C-alpha cells in the first residue's frame, strides 16, 4: 500500500514537471512570436516615419515628385518630372509640355496681377455671371483646367459652361502645378484668367502694369488657340479671325 502511494506521488511529480516544462516551452514560443511582431511593427513604423519625412521634403522641393523604396532598402529617387495621375478622357484641348509651361507662367502672372479666380465654385460663379457672346478682339477670360482630377464629375460641367459663354479653355496635366502657379499651397482643379486686372488704383505705374499684362494675356490667347485642333474652344467660328494660325507666332 505504501509502495503504491509512493508510486502515485512520483507519477504526479513527473506529470507536474512535464506540464511545467510544456507551459514554459509554450510561453517561450508565444514570447518569441510577440517579440518578432513588436520588432516588425517598430521597423514598419520607423520606415513609414522616415519615408513620410522624405516625401514631405521632396514635396516642398518639387511638388509631385516621388520617393521610391528599392531592393528592400529605403532609397530616395526623385523624378525630374512630376508623377501624373490618370487624365480625364475629355481633356481637350490638352496643353503639351511647351504650351503647358507658357500657360502656367501666365497663371502665375495673373495671380500677381490680381486677374485670377481659383477653384470650381468661384470659376463657375464667374462663368454664370459672364456674357454669352464675344465682344472685342479678345475673350474677356480664359479658363485653365487640371486634367488629373478624380472624380471627373468635379470638372466635367466646366467645359460646357465655357462654351455656352464663349470662354476659351485649355487643360493642363497637373493640378499640383496649377495650384503652385496660382500662388496657393493646395492643388487647384480650375482657374480663370481675366483679361482685366483687379483693383481700382489708377496711376502711371498701374498703366505700365496693365500694358504688360495685356501683352501676356494676348500671348496666352494665342497659345490656347494653337493647342486646339479644331479652332478655339468656346469662340464662334465667325469670331475666330484673330486666332488664325497665320497670325500666331
Automatic annotation (TrEMBL):
SUPFAM superfamilies per record: L30e-like
Protein location: Nucleus, Nucleolus
Region (Disordered): 1-41
Keyword Membrane applies: no
Lineage, uppermost ranks: Eukaryota, Fungi, Dikarya, Ascomycota, Pezizomycotina
Gene behind this protein: NHP2
Keywords attached to this entry: Nucleus, Ribonucleoprotein, RNA-binding
Organism: Heterodermia speciosa
Start and end residues of each Ribosomal protein eL8/eL30/eS12/Gadd45 domain: 102-196
InterPro entries cross-referenced by the UniProt entry: eL8/uL1-like, H/ACA_rnp_Nhp2-like, Ribosomal_eL30-like_sf, Ribosomal_eL8-like_CS, Ribosomal_eL8/eL30/eS12/Gad45
Task of the protein: Required for ribosome biogenesis. Part of a complex which catalyzes pseudouridylation of rRNA. This involves the isomerization of uridine such that the ribose is subsequently attached to C5, instead of the normal N1. Pseudouridine ('psi') residues may serve to stabilize the conformation of rRNAs. Common component of the spliceosome and rRNA processing machinery.
A biological process term (GO) from this entry: snRNA pseudouridine synthesis
UniProt protein name: H/ACA ribonucleoprotein complex subunit 2
Main location (coarse class): nucleus
Family affiliation: Belongs to the eukaryotic ribosomal protein eL8 family.
Sequence ranges of Basic and acidic residues compositional bias: 1-13, 21-30
Top-level taxonomic group: Eukaryota
Any Pfam family: Ribosomal_L7Ae
Cellular compartments per GO CC: box H/ACA snoRNP complex
GO terms of molecular function: RNA binding
Amino acid at each position: 500500500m505504501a509502495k503504491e502511494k509512493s508510486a502515485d506521488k512520483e507519477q504526479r511529480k513527473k506529470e507536474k514537471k512535464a506540464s511545467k516544462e510544456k507551459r514554459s516551452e509554450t510561453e517561450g514560443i508565444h514570447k518569441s512570436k510577440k517579440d518578432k511582431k513588436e520588432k516588425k511593427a517598430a521597423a514598419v513604423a520607423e520606415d513609414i516615419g522616415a519615408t513620410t519625412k522624405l516625401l514631405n521634403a521632396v514635396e516642398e522641393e518639387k511638388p509631385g515628385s516621388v520617393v521610391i523604396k528599392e531592393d528592400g532598402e529605403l532609397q530616395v529617387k526623385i523624378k525630374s518630372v512630376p508623377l501624373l495621375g490618370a487624365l480625364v478622357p475629355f481633356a481637350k484641348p490638352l496643353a503639351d509640355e511647351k504650351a503647358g509651361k507658357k500657360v502656367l507662367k501666365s497663371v502665375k502672372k495673373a495671380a500677381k496681377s490680381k486677374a485670377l479666380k481659383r477653384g470650381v465654385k468661384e470659376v463657375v460663379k464667374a462663368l454664370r455671371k459672364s456674357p454669352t457672346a464675344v465682344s472685342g478682339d479678345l475673350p474677356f477670360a480664359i479658363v485653365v483646367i487640371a486634367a488629373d482630377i478624380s472624380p471627373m464629375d468635379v470638372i466635367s460641367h466646366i467645359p460646357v459652361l465655357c462654351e455656352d459663354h464663349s470662354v476659351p479653355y485649355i487643360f493642363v496635366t497637373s493640378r499640383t502645378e496649377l495650384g503652385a502657379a496660382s500662388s496657393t499651397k493646395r492643388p487647384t482643379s480650375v482657374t480663370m484668367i481675366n483679361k482685366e486686372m483687379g483693383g481700382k488704383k489708377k496711376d502711371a505705374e498701374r498703366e505700365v502694369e496693365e500694358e504688360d499684362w495685356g501683352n501676356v494675356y494676348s500671348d496666352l490667347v494665342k497659345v490656347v488657340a494653337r493647342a486646339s485642333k479644331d479652332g478655339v474652344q468656346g469662340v464662334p467660328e465667325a469670331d475666330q479671325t484673330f486666332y488664325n494660325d497665320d497670325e500666331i507666332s
